[in-house]
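Please check this today:
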Amino acid sequence: MLRKILVLVGITLVLVSLSSCSKKEEPRRISLEKRENTSAHAENVREKHIRIAVGGMVTPKEGLAYYKRLLDYIGEKLGGHVDFVDREDYAEINNLLRKGDIDVAFVCSGPYVDGHKDFGLELLVAPQAYGVTVYYSYIIVAEDSAINNLEGLRGKRFAFTDPLSNSGKLVPTFMLAKMNETPDTFFQSYIFTKAHDKAIKAVAQGIVDGAAVDSLIWEYLNRTDPEFTSRTRIIKKSPPYGIPPVVVPRAMNPGLKERLRQLFLNAHNNAKGREILKKMMVDKFVVIDDHAYDSIRKMKSWVDKQGQGKK
């Protein structure tokens, strides 16, 4: 009798076990709501904390305060904060853009062309100054100098600004290449000042005999504080080139990119923004096409080919 009971219990346990294994496990439901909220939150944080570098300016270093005010204005309109990143070295700014360590940058036209080719740097907007979106390279000498043309600077001391600068390095190098010369063969010596206003001062103070400077910087100083520009003289003016733009990395979120673009484009329609732009001697920010920089590309290509031919 006991054996029968134990057999029946065993059979029951086996049946229960089989019944349990035959049941399908209910699928676990995963909510994407938290993930979506996290992503949205991250993007919101990104918009509220923007890093903007200022390299290529249409004002001298004295005008840096107005750039800071402009960036504060942009941050205020975004409802967040803008970190101001100040760099004089154009290559360093391009490297920060390449690595994604900054979100927006004011750059010189030459570094934009390089960055667009090397890692897809994109135009955001460009300043319109004195009614146009172009600028020039001025070759300057001391006001009382006997030098009246570029040839007169042969064997003299010269100041460039940055190795990647369009107006402060590429343009004068192109001018020399057209004469079958290079900076090394033409000048007695040359220096890099890292800033256009410093190059102007170097000429005015007799540290160098000539320099290549951004027309926007020279004109700004000549109108606001001509202490040094009045002691210099323009002996050569280049053809016009696309103005130094505001750029962003290709990977920037399209929505954030468009928000930033609209804030720049509409700054002149706001009383506070308009006052800041006036101090910078900028009429307004406008959309600019990449083709505006084609002449710089052609010039770089020509100089590079000439350089390779002399190796």
